[in-house]
Write a structure and sequence with these properties.
212 residues; mainly alpha; Multidrug-efflux Transporter Regulator, Chain: A, Domain 2; Alpha-Beta Plaits; 3 strands; 66% helix; globular
Length: 212
């Protein structure tokens, strides 16, 4: 079994037209979904899909029909999925390249990684749901928003090669995340040397900023 088949669960044997037909989804809807997810465009006769694509497309259609994904939220939600998983996949692919697993090792590794991803998502979902549901019933809570960046980043970054720059930024992001989480905060976004986070208590946010 080649790497693509191993990662997808089976050898691709369907075209995008066949996937849309089996899922009962109009081709234009399927194309829009794949585009928002950031998938590369396949020609009508490219055999690049599996049964998992049929199931996913059918489930997306069902979520829309149930009203879980509405017209206003559909694009934003799906694009967020696409960007988040694309970034995660790039990082995981680099790890796989370093390990260079054989088929047996990869077959044992992938289910564990998938389970850990599901675990992390459910924990974050539980936390986010508690906050959101509290707001929905009118339970007001303070929220501090903070922004931090690295002093002297531009001048210092010019003296570093790519590997050194990546290591420096990853170290900063790791340290910032640890400090924010320890103070009850949540990272909203990281862009280069910049971190945007929120915390429930202004004092905790200020203490986190002073420690960075």
């Amino acid at each position: 079994m080649d790497l693509e088949a191993l990662l997808l669960g089976e050898q691709p044997h369907l075209t995008r037209v066949q996937v849309a037909e089996r899922a009962g989804v109009p081709m234009e809807v399927a194309e829009q979904l794949w585009r928002m997810l950031g998938f590369p465009r396949a020609a009508d006769d490219d055999v690049a899909f599996t049964e998992a694509d049929v199931v996913a497309l059918r489930q997306a259609r069902e979520l829309i029909e149930l009203g879980v994904i509405g017209p206003d939220s559909q694009a934003a939600l799906v694009r967020t999925w696409g960007r988040s998983f694309a970034r995660l996949a790039e990082w995981q692919a680099e790890l796989l390249a370093e390990v260079d697993p054989d088929e047996e090792m990869a077959d044992a590794l992938l289910p564990r990684v998938e389970q850990l991803q599901s675990y992390a998502w459910r924990r974050h979902l539980a936390s986010a749901a508690a906050r959101t549901l509290g707001e929905a019933v009118g339970v007001a809570s303070p929220l501090a928003v903070a922004f931090v960046d690295i002093v002297g980043y531009t001048s210092r970054s010019k003296s570093l090669d790519q590997a050194e720059l990546v290591a420096w930024l990853e170290g900063f992001e790791a340290a910032a995340t640890e400090i924010v989480v320890e103070h009850g905060g949540r990272i909203i976004k990281t862009i280069g040397d910049e971190v945007l986070f929120v915390a429930d208590e202004p004092r905790a946010a200020a203490e986190a900023v002073l420690l960075m």
